[in-house]
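pls design
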């Protein structure tokens, strides 16, 4: 019987994967590392024995790897500790999955690319600008080279009511604070439930390969923040346009980034959401003009 192990189910993408699997009545087991949530079991991908025991006991047919350390500046500052989780942890997963005939679905990123000529399709050669980007590329290499059955799903700027960015945006706007929006970081923001649905549909098909699964609209972070502010009932004019160079971010970012989605749309037989539709879905249940409930924020 099909069963999915979601590694990193206490995080943003993983929690939506578990919810999407539950909504289909599919059997899922989710893990957390440092933020326990009801129903999840502890797992550190660095602990091979613990990892192998979980897979031996639960016998998943698919493993979604949405666990790891995705903070780009933190990776830049801590290349070795983050390599251990983001790359060696994925190697552990691949080896354990192979021992148990389990398919690996690995979450990757637009940060593989340099941001000169986005949005990027699945064929474009990678050229990362940051430690995080190199770690994602190295982990992809492990998955594509050594996993018996695998999918790589690349995504970009994932958002949901529980995401750090959306919580921070709503809280700042509710306090009447001005918020900086980057005009020169362009991407294809992705609504987390839409990503989770696409990933699960892909995972349930036969076949291997690399798929982009992101929002379908190319937009700056500034325009995205304005659209979200408006949808939450705030004045979008308090978003102040700034350039990346003004922020002194530790790691370099791909500026003209984003991903194309034709391949995934053909494979799953539906369109990926654009920003307006994703933000509409996100705000449908949120009270207007109020701060986010950051107690529900995922790590
Ligand atoms: N968010 C984005 O915009 C974005 C864009 C492109 C790609 N991605 C990729 O998508 C994946 C998921 O991202 P996300 O936004 O969901 O991240 P997230 O919210 O930070 O969640 C990360 C998850 O990984 C778990 N984790 C951390 N260290 C671990 C370890 N040593 N062993 C096992 N699990 C560990 C965390 O558990 P605890 O919280 O319990 O510690 C959490 O459940 C990442 O691989 C990321 O690179 C994300």
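designed seq:
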């Amino acid at each position: 019987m099909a069963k999915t192990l979601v590694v990193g189910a206490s995080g943003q993408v993983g929690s939506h994967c578990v919810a999407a699997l539950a909504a289909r009545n599919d059997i899922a087991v989710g893990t957390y590392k440092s933020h326990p949530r009801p129903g999840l079991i502890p797992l550190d991908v660095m602990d091979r024995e613990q990892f192998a025991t979980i897979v031996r006991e639960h016998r998943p047919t698919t493993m979604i790897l949405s666990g790891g350390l995705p903070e780009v500046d933190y990776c830049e500052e801590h290349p070795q500790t983050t390599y251990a989780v983001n790359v060696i942890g994925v190697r552990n997963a691949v080896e354990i999955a192979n021992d148990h005939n389990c398919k690996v679905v690995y979450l990757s990123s637009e940060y593989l690319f340099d941001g000169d000529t986005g949005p990027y399709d699945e064929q474009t050669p990678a050229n990362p600008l940051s430690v995080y980007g190199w770690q994602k590329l190295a982990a992809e290499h492990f998955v594509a080279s050594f996993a018996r059955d695998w999918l790589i799903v690349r995504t970009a700027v994932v958002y949901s009511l529980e995401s750090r960015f959306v919580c921070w945006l709503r809280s700042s706007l509710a306090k009447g604070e001005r918020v900086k929006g980057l005009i020169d970081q362009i991407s294809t923001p992705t609504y987390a439930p839409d990503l989770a649905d696409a990933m699960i549909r892909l995972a349930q098909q036969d076949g291997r390969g690399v798929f982009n699964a992101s929002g379908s609209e190319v937009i700056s972070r500034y325009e995205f923040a304005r659209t979200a502010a408006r949808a939450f009932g705030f004045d979008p004019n308090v978003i102040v346009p700034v350039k990346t160079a003004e922020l002194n971010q530790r790691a370099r970012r791909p500026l003209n980034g984003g991903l194309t989605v034709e391949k995934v749309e053909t494979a799953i037989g539906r369109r990926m959401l654009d920003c307006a539709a994703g933000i509409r879905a996100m705000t449908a249940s949120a009270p207007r003009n109020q701060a986010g409930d950051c107690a529900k924020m995922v790590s």
